[in-house]
Amino acid sequence: MEVWPGRPFPLGATWDGGGTNFALFSEHAERVELCLFDGDTETRVGLQDVTAHNWHCYLPGVGPGQRYGYRVHGPYDPPSGHRFNPNKLLIDPYAKAIEGAVQWDRANALPYVPSLDEDADLEFDDEDDADAIPKSVVVDTSFDWEDDEPPRTDWNDTVIYETHVKGFTQRHPEVREDLRGTYGALASEPALAYLHDLGVTAVELLPIHHIADEGFLHERGLTNYWGYSSIGYLAPHALYAATGTAGEQVREFKGMVKALHGAGIEVILDVVYNHTAEGNHLGPMLSFRGLDNRSYYRLMPDDQRFYMDFTGTGNSLNPVHPSVLRLIMDSLRYFVLECHVDGFRFDLASALAREFYDVDRLSAFFDTIHQDPVLSQVKLIAEPWDVGPGGYQVGNFPVRWAEWNGKYRDSVRDFWRGLGNVGEFAQRFTGSSDLYGEDGRDPFASINFVTAHDGFTLNDLVSYNDKHNEANLEDNRDGTDDNRSWNLGAEGPTEDPGVLAVRARQQRNFLATLLLSQGVPMLLGGDEFGRTQGGNNNAWCQDNEISWFDWASADAGLIEFARRVIALRREHPVFRRTSFLSGDAGESGLPDAWWFRPDGRRMTQRDWTNPETKTLGVFLNGQEIRERTAHGEPMFDDSFLLVFNVHSEPVVFTLPARRFGARWQVELATGEAPEGQLGARALVAVQEHSLLLLRRN
């Protein structure tokens, strides 16, 4: 086989029409072999050229579809941080396609001899595991994007729908059976029509970087369904493709993005750059560990046999190392430039911000993104915590970053179960200016959510007090014990019409609160139709009916309610302001927002701190929007009064004085609604556990 020196960049396998350039980073390797596979036949090519720790060669005639991997030689010395083992085939970290899953039963993918000894990882294993390891694949990256244009939806107009590529369509009756659960299914007309009609502007997809299930899950007959177990940061997960796994998954993924853009929907990827699928010191050798363990991972400074673990998964990637940081940036740029993705949600983002030990908002990770002309312009969302010391960093990420607002979730849940601090709730409902208003950020910095993939669904939140994770085979010990659920006494499924009515109101209360709050709402996919996981609040390993959307049992009335509230948000900028509310009087003579107690008077400091305050209203002044049309004219909106009653009894609410509005009409109600127009100081009955939205005439 003819072998040319090739180039050190770009890293990965790059086909140019006549051959393929291969380049691999390893700072501490002694020798590197490129392994080409034709069926079960393996051909090894020694890489003789090394430039700046990048091993490289060019193979004329090698092109798309070629399966390959690497074997890397060096010391196996865990106490020194080195775990090289050339008997273990390694996945290219820059592979743009990886053909499938790890076949755990075919060979030992551990670099050591398996045993129950706590020092097992110290004994080098010489079993070849090529049969077990999925091969990297050379791909043709060309794609006809036609006239694709990213929607570029403004943050204040954004409504995010968090969902799973497979789970969303796996049981969808209107999607072709051979497409269900794939990128192609998410690009199908039934899926696009549903999302468009619902009114969401972006899908936030659980991880689609190529996934490797943990070995212990395989032993239990389970898989890592959520996908927070990445092993290929430039490769769309092969098992979500309907068209094939020899590179076809790349084209299918791009086609999905193109189709969603055509429906006006942005694509945000949940990305996991904080750890990999290789686990702790007893984990398998799939890629990074065998390529250069000491460069890719954060090791304990006093014993480099062990890993620093800020993620709870056994390891933490080392973004302090320039080549690891480059991998992260190259992955992000690839998905923006080559795959037209619109943004990213960074899992456990605090781990990426740890320069050495403490979380540092001025870390190299942030600096690199902020100076990048591509990445600085897309949507950037942080999950602002990890499991390490000082890892809870809500409100502390830099300008241009939005954050999952965990304080919003907790406050709104507590409020609607009648145990919350109403002052805290008001702060969260109006955009959390206390978290984001002092460092140059706007309300969109707050990604508001009540439920997410990690925890109860909305239906289960109001139906269960206790988790039911037995199917995870961990004796129900996993998952969070307190998800702030509240179900009025009846656990799980019931036919009691009174309990069902309250649950229905509660789901609507949460949806309306979320979608009418200042900030960016994120809706957990399926919450709009009452999806249940049977009380499982940690369904990460349930690739089955527990997690898949059950479209046959969808609550059509709840879907219609969600559509209506999303439409209200879209039509009225008073619910999606671009600046924080101040409470000060404006040109209209009225404040932009004002809070009322049930007698129609202004809330006092005593009311805000009184734990018995269960009912309150807020006036939102549409005449103080301070926005302008494209032609520069002021843009005004209707004004609204929103009344919350979290009490277990009906409450009579007195509408405010005439200066706030002489006539009001009901726009939305989660409980019984008054009829006709209502005048100033009118007495309005507000049902227990419900909210009422009035529009000023």
Let me know the number of strands.
32
CATH architecture of the largest domain: Alpha-Beta Barrel
* CATH-assigned homologous superfamily of the largest domain: Glycosidases
Shape, please?
Answer: elongated
Number of discrete domains: 2
Give the fraction of residues assigned to helices: 10-25%
Strand count, sense and closure of the main sheet? 8 strands, parallel, barrel
Rg, Å, rounded: 27 Å
Question: How would you briefly describe this protein structure?
Answer:
The chain is an alpha/beta fold and 697 residues long. It is built from 16 helices and 32 strands.
Question: What does this entry look like structurally?
Answer:
With 697 residues, the chain is of the alpha/beta class. It folds into two domains: 155-574, TIM Barrel; 582-696, Sandwich (Immunoglobulin-like). It is 21% helix and 20% strand. The chain is built from 16 helices and 32 strands. The protein has an eight-stranded parallel β-barrel. Helix 10 crosses helix 11 and helix 14 (497-516) runs parallel beside helix 15 (556-571). The longest helix is centred in the C-terminal third of the chain and has 20 residues, at 497-516.
